[in-house]
């Protein structure tokens, strides 16, 4: 591995322009004001989305905690939290309903409830709520339903949306909303777009033309103009029977018929939740890491939210490395390491300082790169507010750690640079 | 801190690469393909999630449905790329087994292809891995067309299900070509020709997922399992202090006064804020390395060779892939062609 100095061209000025170190100052209008978003009573839903491994769950939990401690009544719906974070949120009990989180400062009048999504149970509950007991039992026992509710690609996204809609609509005895803010983390999809697309895909599959044709062959039969289609259906059916087996097709037909008569189409349900997301009270936060691929993914997502008229609040860039000693430039630090290696006045101290300076050179190089990548994103999406969160020295798995993240998120909106830990 | 990796079995021909999202799984898969090619081997790198990551990693134009030469390495090795799409695979499959001809278009228009590829993830996965299976077994004359196939598989959270195609289609297709194909795939995945490489960062959550995935993947039904090849630690931090220096930093043996004096002597800024910042950075670094050591110990319980790749400044750049390939080739002794 090469030393940290090689990233810098020899002969380059030892003191680069200040903008290289504080690149976010030229974009004051595009800072994301997290507190204004969380404090606004009109904000009813916050959706944290982004590609896998960028810290969506932690961001969602930190935002929910901050909102609660600033006086709002908050429910946070997480999908797949790290074990210790789950413990910190009191998510040991998996009963698919939000539980009060202990240790939250409620002096401002707020509170925090948390839950982890149980996808199969959420699906089962929809069936049970909308079908007669006998019918529900029949549906739940259907082999295809079991595959659909536990492993279908897209079911998790669909159920996350469904649960979000339920939490949003829940009211207390007086008719007031049970929570005035619901924060949701999205499933670890291969692409951030899956969260938006999967429910419609599942809906269109179950309501789709092909399933309808399969399940209603009798209605198609006698009509001359459908003969071609019907012939195609025959071919398709026989092909699918060969590929998938008769039992599966029969299971699908039975299931779709049963679901259809008990509650309105799947697509209709998905459309309703989609409409909730488009409303003004919802804010999408796209979470990313300061690397090329996650930010490119964030860019796709931002474009897509725009195209669908979804309310985008901004982009959160996590794990940004920042130097705690910005006065010491990388090339200066690297050059000084060389001097220390030649000197032998106080080898003990020199060894420590040499290490500190090597680390500083490396940290500044990484910080510059993260700042550049983030700035490039901001240039390409000038209207999108951005907040960045510093990389923490340790993994976050308690309320104190979440408070730190929340404070950093909020600070990023008002002041350039942060003073958090580095790599 | 790295454990010297033992060489892989020379009979290994299918490398399945997985890892938690954000760990650099695709970069490592690309580096592995390049490392194998650098031994003069002809390698096919396959992606199954249609994200175009292979093309991005090697900085070439997007891959189509046909295998394409991505890179030729001096010494005769080659990296080929393929982006598999389930729908195209099904149409091809139906053509092959049922001489479908033009009817494919009708099926597509009716939504039957969509239906079949979304109806059960199992069918989709059989089709995707089916292409990989075919490429692994393809021969030209006496020898295999590809010496190695590297599969950039779904992330750890989904890979168990992805690879367990037999169980997935068991309830769905009891007979017929899909079932037959699933059986053949399972036989390949459980044979000594296949290994799974797990990519992780030295952080709590990815390590936990890696250990869990290793346990899940090595407990197959009927006792037959796919073996774990390498555990690849990506982006490991380089230690900046030797042990005495780290100790002096943590126990305060070298504190603000000494550091300020030395910085002053070097003509560097030595104000209290800078000194405190540098010291805090140093202690955080030592702290983080301690944490990483703990995570490394957890990975070693998996029982597979651990390869440690350095943290590069631009982890996803194409120059980085070469550097990582070199590290992989040095640490895991891949057989020559």
Helices and strands in order, then pairings?
The complex is a heterodimer of chains A (about 425) and B (about 325).
Chain A: H1 18-21, H2 34-39, E1 45-49, H3 56-69, E2 73-78, H4 83-88, E3 99-100, E4 111-116, H5 119-130, H6 133-141, H7 143-151, H8 155-169, E5 181-185, H9 194-207, H10 209-215, H11 217-221, H12 227-244, H13 246-262, H14 266-278, E6 282-288, H15 292-307, E7 312-320, H16 330-342, H17 347-380, E8 386-390, H18 399-412
Parallel strand pairs in A: 1-5, 1-6, 2-4, 2-5, 6-7, 7-8
Antiparallel strand pairs in A: 3-4
Helix pairs in contact in A: 3-18, 5-6, 5-8, 8-9, 8-14, 9-10, 9-14, 12-13, 16-17
Chain B: E1 14-19, H1 25-37, E2 42-47, H2 53-58, E3 68-72, E4 78-83, H3 86-98, H4 103-110, H5 112-118, H6 121-137, E5 139-140, E6 143-144, E7 148-152, H7 156-163, H8 165-170, H9 176-189, E8 194-200, H10 204-217, E9 227-236, H11 243-251, H12 256-265, H13 272-300, E10 306-310, H14 318-331
Parallel strand pairs in B: 1-7, 1-8, 2-4, 2-7, 8-9, 9-10
Antiparallel strand pairs in B: 3-4, 5-6
Helix pairs in contact in B: 1-14, 3-5, 3-6, 6-9, 7-10, 10-13
Walk me through what this model shows.
The complex is a heterodimer of chains A (423) and B (337). Chain A is of the alpha/beta class and 423 residues long. Chain A contains 18 helices and 8 strands. Chain A has helices at 18-21, 34-39, 56-69, 83-88, 119-130, 133-141, 143-151, 155-169, 194-207, 209-215, 217-221, 227-244, 246-262, 266-278, 292-307, 330-342, 347-380, 399-412, and strands spanning 45-49, 73-78, 99-100, 111-116, 181-185, 282-288, 312-320, 386-390. In chain A, strands 3-4-2-5-1-6-7-8 form an 8-stranded mixed sheet, sandwiched between helices. In chain A, strand 6 (282-288), helix 15 (292-307) and strand 7 (312-320) form a beta-alpha-beta unit. The longest helix of chain A is centred in the last third of the chain and has 34 residues, at 347-380. Chain B is built from 14 helices and 10 strands. By secondary structure, chain B is an alpha/beta fold. In chain B, the strands form 2 sheets. In chain B, strands 3-4-2-7-1-8-9-10 form an 8-stranded mixed sheet, with helices on both faces. At the A-B interface, helix 7, helix 10, helix 12, helix 13 and helix 15 of A face helix 3, helix 4, helix 5, helix 6 and helix 9 of B.
């Amino acid at each position: 591995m090469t030393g940290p100095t090689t990233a810098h061209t020899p002969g380059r000025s030892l003191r680069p322009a200040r903008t290289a170190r504080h690149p976010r100052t030229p974009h004051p209008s595009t800072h994301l004001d997290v507190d204004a978003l969380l404090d606004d009573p009109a904000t009813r839903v916050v959706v944290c989305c982004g590609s896998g491994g960028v810290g969506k769950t932690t961001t969602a939990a930190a935002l929910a905690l901050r909102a609660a401690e600033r006086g709002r009544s908050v429910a946070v719906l997480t999908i797949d939290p790290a074990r210790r974070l789950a413990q910190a949120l009191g998510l040991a009990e998996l009963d698919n309903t939000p539980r009060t989180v202990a240790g939250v400062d409620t002096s401002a009048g707020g509170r925090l409830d948390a839950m982890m999504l149980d996808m199969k149970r959420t699906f089962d509950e929809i069936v049970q709520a909308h079908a007669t007991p006998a019918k529900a039992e029949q549906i739940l026992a259907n082999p295809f339903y079991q595959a659909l509710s536990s492993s279908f690609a897209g079911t998790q996204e669909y159920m996350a949306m469904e649960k979000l809609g339920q939490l949003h609509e829940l009211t207390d005895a007086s008719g007031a909303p049970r929570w005035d803010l619901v924060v949701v983390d999205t499933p670890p999809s291969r692409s951030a777009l899956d969260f938006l697309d999967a429910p419609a895909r599942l809906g269109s599959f179950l309501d789709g033309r092909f399933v309808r044709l399969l399940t209603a062959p009798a209605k198609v039969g006698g009509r001359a103009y459908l003969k071609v289609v019907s012939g195609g259906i025959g071919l398709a059916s026989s092909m699918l029977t060969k590929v998938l087996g008769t039992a599966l097709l029969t299971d699908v037909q039975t299931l779709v018929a049963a679901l259809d008569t008990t509650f309105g189409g799947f697509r209709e349900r998905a459309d309703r939740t989609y409409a909730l997301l488009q409303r003004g009270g919802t804010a999408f936060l796209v979470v990313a890491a300061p690397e090329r691929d996650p930010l490119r993914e964030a860019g796709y997502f931002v474009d897509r939210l725009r195209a669908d008229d979804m309310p985008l609040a901004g982009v959160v860039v996590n794990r940004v490395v920042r130097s705690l000693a910005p006065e010491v430039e990388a090339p200066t630090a690297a050059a000084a390491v060389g001097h220390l290696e030649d000197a032998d006045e106080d080898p003990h101290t020199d060894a420590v300082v040499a290490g500190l300076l090597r680390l500083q050179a490396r940290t500044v190089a990484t910080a510059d790169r993260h700042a550049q990548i983030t700035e490039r994103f901001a240039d390409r999406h000038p209207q999108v507010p951005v907040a960045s969160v510093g990389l923490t020295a340790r993994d976050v798995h308690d309320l104190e750690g979440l408070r730190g993240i929340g404070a950093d998120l909020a600070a990023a909106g008002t002041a350039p640079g942060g003073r958090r830990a580095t790599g | 801190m790295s454990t010297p990796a033992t060489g892989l079995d020379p009979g290994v021909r299918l490398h399945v690469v997985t890892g938690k999202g954000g760990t650099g799984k695709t970069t490592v898969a690309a580096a592995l393909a390049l490392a194998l090619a650098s031994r003069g081997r002809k390698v096919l790198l396959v992606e199954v999630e249609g994200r175009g990551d292979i093309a991005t990693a090697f900085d070439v134009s997007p891959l189509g449905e046909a295998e394409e030469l991505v890179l030729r390495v001096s010494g005769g090795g080659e990296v080929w790329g393929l982006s598999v799409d389930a729908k195209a695979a099904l149409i091809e499959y139906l053509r092959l087994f049922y001489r479908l001809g033009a009817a494919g278009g009708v099926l597509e228009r009716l939504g039957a292809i969509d239906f079949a590829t979304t109806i059960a993830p199992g069918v989709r996965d059989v089709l995707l891995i089916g292409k990989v299976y075919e490429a692994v077994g393809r021969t030209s004359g006496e020898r295999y067309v590809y010496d190695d196939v590297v599969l950039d598989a779904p992330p750890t959270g989904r890979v168990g299900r992805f690879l367990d195609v037999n169980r997935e289609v068991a309830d769905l297709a009891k007979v017929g070509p899909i079932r037959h194909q699933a059986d053949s795939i399972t036989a390949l995945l459980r044979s000594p020709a296949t290994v799974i490489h797990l990519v992780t960062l030295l952080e709590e959550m990815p390590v936990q997922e890696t250990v869990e995935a290793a346990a899940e993947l090595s407990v197959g039904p009927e006792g037959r399992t796919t073996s774990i090849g390498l555990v690849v630690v990506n982006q490991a931090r380089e230690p900046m202090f030797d042990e005495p220096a780290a100790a002096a930093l943590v126990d305060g043996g070298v504190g603000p006064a000494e550091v300020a004096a030395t910085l002053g002597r070097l003509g560097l800024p030595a104000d209290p804020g800078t000194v405190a910042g540098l010291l805090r950075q140093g202690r955080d670094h030592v702290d983080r390395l301690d944490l990483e050591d703990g995570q490394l110990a957890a990975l070693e319980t998996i029982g597979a060779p651990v390869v440690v790749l350095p943290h590069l400044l631009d982890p996803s750049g194409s120059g980085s892939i070469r550097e990582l390939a070199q590290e992989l080739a040095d640490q895991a002794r891949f057989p020559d062609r």
